[in-house]
Amino acid sequence: GEAEYRGERFKDWDCNVKGNNDMLSITMPEVIKGIYQQYLEIGGSNMIGTNTFSSTTIAMADYNMEAYAYELNYYGARLAREACDEQTAKDPTNPRFVCGAVGPTNRTGSISPSVEDASVRNVTFDELVETYFEQVVGLVDGGADILIVETIFDTLNAKAALFAIGEYLEFSNLDIPVFISGTLVDQSGRTLSGQTGEAFYASIRHAKPMCVGLNCALGAQQMVPFVERLAKVVECYMHVYSNAGLPNAMGGYDDTPEDMAKYNKVFFENKWLNMVGGCCGSTPPHIKALR
């Protein structure tokens, strides 16, 4: 409930924070680390994403928590780092890696929030770069091995994130792998900003990612034709982490671990992918089934 989200530190916060899952890295770290551990131990994950999908000043403005963006990223990554290191220590032949999750924010650089005026924007490119730069600093300071710009439905936002990552890596003289993951919003096979998977890849390939792929919005079964097309143009490693099917009328996901494994099998039979995982609705047993 609300009290659990707030914890002692934010017990007198001036607005409701229930639903701000990222802040649990600060107020309930044992819960977040426990979730990381379940994916590593039960699921057998080689990589886990950090609890930082919305840990930007832009997204945190909904909760008046802009000032905590760096801290949310730092602890989201730090808890994942601890969980991965503990698991790796049990079996050094199977190292586990932390993917610093960089989400899309809740504003879009190329899409108008107004149905009356298509020219309106509620965020600038420079504002996106600034918010992403702070996020990346926190993730790397917290111990992320990889940075993944994920659930991309507006390519301009992704370009801002990739620009911020490039600036930070150059400034800090670091070389950290970058993954990029687009989201095709429905069976049209296009992002919300209108691009096919192939056009999306053409827009971001300059960033020289280690891995490119698709996540969210669709189940693995619905992704098949789009993965096939994208695999023909991608020049780096490729991944998919689908939802556990399409959401049902109650907002839940119906694909069982066995379903998800069956639908993902086609990707590997056709040698389209190098990595696979799970997004909305997937659980540690889903990940275990994919192995």
Kindly describe this structure:
With 291 residues, the protein is of the alpha/beta class. Helices cover 43% and strands 14% of the residues. The chain has eleven helices and seven strands. The protein has helices spanning 2-6, 24-27, 29-41, 57-60, 69-90, 125-142, 155-172, 197-204, 220-231, 257-269, 284-290; strands at residues 47-49, 97-102, 146-152, 178-182, 211-219, 237-243, 275-278. Strands 1-2-3-4-5-6-7 form a seven-stranded parallel β-sheet. Helix 6 packs across helix 7 (155-172). The relative contact order is 0.10.
Give the helices and strands, then pairings.
Layout lengths: L1 H5 L17 H4 L1 H13 L5 E3 L7 H4 L8 H22 L6 E6 L22 H18 L3 E7 L2 H18 L5 E5 L14 H8 L6 E9 H12 L5 E7 L13 H13 L5 E4 L5 H7 L1
Parallel strand pairs: 1-2, 2-3, 3-4, 4-5, 5-6, 6-7
Helix pairs in contact: 3-5, 5-6, 6-7, 9-10, 10-11
Q: Biggest sheet, open or closed, and with what strands and sense?
A: 7 strands, parallel
Name the average pLDDT. 97
Q: Give the helix/strand class.
A: alpha/beta
In total, the number of strands is: 7
Summarize the helix and strand pattern as letters. Answer: HHHEHHEHEHEHEHEHEH
| Uncertain residue segments | none
The outline comes out as globular
Separation, N- and C-terminal Cα atoms: 35 Å
Major sheet strand order: 1-2-3-4-5-6-7
Number of helices: 11
GO molecular function: cobalamin binding; metal ion binding; methionine synthase activity
Family: Belongs to the vitamin-B12 dependent methionine synthase family.
EC number: 2.1.1.13
Protein name: methionine synthase
